[in-house]
Write a structure and sequence with these properties.
The complex is a heterotrimer.
Chain A lengths: L2 H22 L4 H5 L2 H9 L17 E4 L5 H10 L39 H14 L6 E6 L6 H12 L5 E7 L8 H4 L5 H7 L3 E6 L3 H8 L11 E6 L23 H9 L3
Parallel strand pairs in A: 1-2, 2-3, 3-5, 4-5
Helix pairs in contact in A: 1-3, 1-4, 3-9, 5-6
Chain B lengths: L2 H20 L4 H5 L2 H11 L12 E4 L5 H10 L40 H14 L6 E6 L6 H12 L5 E7 L2 E2 L2 E2 H4 L5 H7 L3 E6 L6 H6 L7 E6 L7 H5 L11 H9 L3
Parallel strand pairs in B: 1-2, 2-3, 3-7, 6-7
Antiparallel strand pairs in B: 4-5
Chain C lengths: L1 H14 L3 E6 L6 H7 L4 E4 L3 H13 L3 E7 H5 L3 H9 L5 E6 L17 H6 L5 E3 L4 H11 L6 E4 L20 E3 L7 E5 L3 H11 L3 E5 L2 E3 L3 H8 L4 E5 L8 H11 L6 E5 L12 H7 L4 H10 L2
Parallel strand pairs in C: 1-2, 1-3, 3-4, 4-6, 5-6, 8-9, 8-11, 11-12
Antiparallel strand pairs in C: 5-10, 7-9
């Protein structure tokens, strides 16, 4: 896909994600919107090699969504790829649907169940290690939230992955600078983040997480294992990107727009 | 001979006395700690049973190094040497890991790794709130820095701007399974601490242990990490080279004598 | 209930300067005033539960009272070791204020629901476990908690729960009796927000009283024995997995005291984590433990 089509796809996914969450009256809209371009690069930009017709193919790339809050976006993408009907999304977070607010392995195309933070990187590292041991060439990607970096388990996994030279592991941080209550740098400083991850032995690339050109440059070439060490792509993003009514605002975490914001949000995304 | 050298030799002998009478323990992990603890207890904080409650707080987070702590506390008069023979026994106070409920002079009950740094943060905040000018020192093992909770604490120490807290790492390069660099490497160690917002110093505790006190006497701006390069089994020719001594649950007086003869 | 509790903690902090609050990137809104007026007593740390528990232990060991708050399972499961060693074993003066007790976060799935908390803390026999049913009870508990210098865990309900305890004497450690009829043959033992459901059930059956154990541990055995020996049928209703919760504890006490009811029923969340997502009430329906199902079942089995 060319960049224009990817941008159109991103727009469509933003619309659909918002619709889904509005209908369900729940779901992490802003956490999903910040990583749209990242997931679009992976799923539509050709960096995540999977075959929608054979989800069990052992040579497929793995994608572990550690920040499981972004599930409505991933669910939308998987439906768009034809793994199940788009109509299923109407039952997002309903007890008769196949999806929870967080992530469930039972949904076709989802690699792991998640919800508690700080688990995904360790899981992805285990998958990458197994790939090395079995001489499999696939890549394992995992998307972390920045708030998730407060969990000590992340730092345990970072050390493990670098020690075991897991250069088939790609970590991505959705650096949207916002937690539930506040901006990360007000809550507990994470910067200098690049230095921190480098000090834990990773190759680090930092990009604008909404710019396809930069994302492609970062993802490009990873399959040829340019470094002995695992690579972390820190993507600077905006939480709620695409919806001004929910961007740059703490306390918009975990909920769709409410009250008069509903109409403003719908208008912004033309739905 | 400097005070530190002389005292270190005496404490290392005492550790062997506990080892002999108690017939078990982690001796090499205690030996790498000796200079660090002496600098803190005798030189920097000058702890005594009388001033203990009001003085600086010293937390041994790597609880398996407790033999060094016990030898120092008994030397400072916190309890009688009669306890040595009751080490790890039901009628004694000295356990395989230190408990503050039973042992006078122990600030923090440890055993499981990765707790002490956070507890020290709580104490450092408490001292500031009480307008105390005392400091908090917490001693971590190098293997302990594998624990994610240590890095949770590092983020928090930076956030809470604790200039009355110092983290001292006994970097003896060995953890239970083998060399730290093989099991779970820590390098670049200094960059790790600095990237988490701590000021970081390194000391060679084998050739220049006096430098630790000099560093402790300089003013801190933020929480400080001091990486103390030590040798596991430091100060004993046999223990420095033979890793099979990490933990013994049975030891004969003859074996202890061999170790005694190997003190440097 | 959550807001009432947090407001009470704030009130305590205004009154007693040794009261501290540590949150884990949670609890917006009501806390702004706390943060602004008492910044020295307010800590909002990152998503690092293990660290927060140990830090609370450090503060408590220097004489402070500490309330720590995040979503319940991230304390009870993730930081269990820190709670067991740094808080419980040291008998520190720390209150664990766990949001989203039971299935409050039902839509968020098993990672966020707290359905095994009683079992985990029953293993720590001297940990006080509180599960208030409404905001009134919560208010009383927070006030009393300041004076209890021991580790306490409080399981929170969603909020907006119907107030049913306002005319009762609420004390940590005491069960509360709701008498419905003079010749009642059945009694429902319950805790937390299941009290409202138990009352609904007893209203519809005309021979059923209710005994509310808002203190799950230590269990008010005296009240249990005194009451339960009078009834033919004992029903336990709790928002917890089958094992290790109130039901298990009650069976243990009854057996120990040689009380044998003619019938014993235990309504609970079953053996496994619940992967079906839905709102609290929907899951109760799904598991058939909401009042309408229980009433039908009890009536049909008469």
């Amino acid at each position: 896909m060319d960049i224009k089509s990817l941008e159109e796809k991103s727009y469509f996914l933003r619309q659909k994600t918002l619709e889904t969450c509005l209908k369900a009256k729940t779901g992490h809209v802003t956490s999903s919107l910040s990583c749209v371009e990242i997931l679009v690069s992976l799923y539509y930009g050709g960096f995540l090699e999977i075959n929608p017709k054979d989800l069990e193919d052992d040579d497929r790339d793995r994608f572990i969504l550690s920040k499981a809050q972004a599930s409505p976006l991933l669910y939308t993408i998987l439906a768009d790829l034809g793994l199940y009907d788009l109509k299923e999304l109407d039952k997002f977070a309903q007890k008769d649907g196949i999806f929870g607010v967080h992530l469930q392995h039972s949904v076709p195309g989802v690699e792991s169940t998640a919800g508690a933070l700080g688990h995904g990187l360790g899981l992805a590292a285990g998958i990458a290690l197994r790939a090395k041991m079995d001489r499999k060439l696939f890549l394992t990607y995992t998307l972390l939230g920045d708030g998730e970096l407060y969990e000590g388990s992340i730092w345990e996994s970072l050390k493990f992955a670098s020690h075991n030279n897991l250069n088939n592991l790609v970590g991505i941080i959705d650096r949207n600078y916002l937690c539930t209550t506040d901006f990360t740098e007000n809550l507990v400083e994470l910067e200098p983040l690049t230095d921190k991850i480098k000090a834990f032995g990773w190759n680090v690339i930092r990009v604008n997480g909404h710019c396809f050109k930069s994302l492609f440059e970062a993802f490009d070439n990873l399959r040829s294992r340019p470094s002995r060490k695992p690579t972390m792509i820190i993507c600077d993003t905006v939480k709620g990107k695409g919806l001004k009514v929910m961007s740059y605002k703490p306390l918009c975490h975990g909920v769709p727009p409410k009250g008069e914001d509903i109409e403003i949000a719908k208008k912004e995304l033309n739905i | 001979m400097t005070f530190l050298k002389e005292k270190s030799l005496q404490i290392r002998e005492e550790i062997l006395n506990i080892f002999e009478l108690g017939t078990r323990g982690h001796v090499p992990s205690a030996y790498s700690l000796v200079e660090i603890l002496i600098t803190l207890y005798y030189e920097k904080s000058k702890i005594t049973p009388e001033n203990f409650k009001l003085q600086d707080k010293i937390l041994l987070s790597k609880g398996h190094g407790c033999l060094a702590l016990y030898a120092i506390l008994s030397d400072l008069g916190f309890f009688s040497k009669d306890e040595y023979s009751k080490f790890c026994k039901v009628d004694g106070i000295l356990g395989g890991h230190p408990s503050k409920h039973k042992i006078p002079g122990v600030e923090f009950s440890s055993g499981s790794l990765g707790h002490g740094f956070s507890v020290a943060i709580g104490k450092a905040i408490a001292l500031k709130r009480k307008s105390s000018n005392k400091n908090v020192y917490v001693i971590l093992g190098d293997g302990e820095c594998n624990e994610g909770s240590v890095w949770e604490a590092a983020l928090s120490a930076n956030k809470n701007k604790l200039d009355n807290l110092t983290v001292i790492i006994d970097y003896n390069k060995f953890q239970s399974y083998g060399p730290t660099e093989e099991v779970c490497p820590l390098e670049p160690f200094q960059s790790k601490w600095e990237s988490f917002g701590l000021e970081c110093e390194e000391v060679n505790m084998v050739t220049n242990p006096e430098k630790l006190l000099d560093i402790l006497n300089t003013k801190q701006i933020s929480t400080r990490a001091i990486i103390c390069h030590t040798i596991k089994g430091q100060g004993n020719r046999i223990l420095e080279t033979d890793i099979s001594w990490h933990h013994k649950s049975k030891v004969s007086p003859e074996e202890v004598q061999i170790l005694r003869d190997a003190l440097i | 209930m959550r807001k009432t509790g947090l407001n009470q903690i704030y009130e305590l902090a205004k009154k007693y300067s040794n009261v501290n609050f540590i949150g884990s990137d949670l609890g917006p809104g009501t806390l702004d005033e706390f943060r602004n007026t008492l910044p020295n007593q307010f800590f909002m740390e990152g998503i690092s539960e293990a660290h927060i528990v140990s830090m609370a232990s450090g503060l408590s060991s220097e004489g402070f009272k500490v309330y720590i708050n995040t979503i319940s399972p991230f304390f009870t499961r993730r930081a269990f070791e820190q709670i067991a060693l740094d808080i419980y074993s040291e008998n520190e003066d720390v209150v664990i204020y766990g949001n989203g007790g039971g299935l409050v976060y039902g839509p968020l799935g098993p990672s966020h629901t707290s359905v095994d908390d009683f079992a985990l803390f029953h293993a720590l026999g001297n940990m006080i476990i509180l599960a208030p049913a409404d905001a009134n009870e919560m208010e009383q508990f927070i006030q009393q908690s300041y004076h209890i210098k021991k580790p306490i865990y409080i399981r929170l309900g969603k909020g907006g729960d119907k107030i049913v305890t306002s005319d009762k004497d609420i004390q940590v450690g005491k069960a509360i009796k709701f008498n419905k009829s003079e010749n009642a043959k059945k009694i429902i033992c319950t805790t937390g927000i299941m009290l409202q459901r138990a009352l609904e059930i007893s209203d519809s059956l005309n021979d059923c009283d209710v005994l509310h154990f808002s203190t799950v541990q230590p269990l008010d055995e005296e009240s249990l024995i005194e009451n339960c020996s009078k009834y033919e049928e004992i029903i336990v209703l709790e928002e917890h997995l089958q094992d290790g919760g109130l039901g298990t504890r009650i069976i243990q006490s009854l057996f120990k005291n040689s009380i044998q009811p003619r019938k014993f029923r235990h309504y609970n969340l079953g053996k496994n984590y619940i992967h079906t997502c839905g709102r609290q009430e929907e899951i109760f329906d799904y598991l058939k433990i909401s009042p309408k199902y229980i009433i039908d079942e009890i009536k049909s089995l008469k």
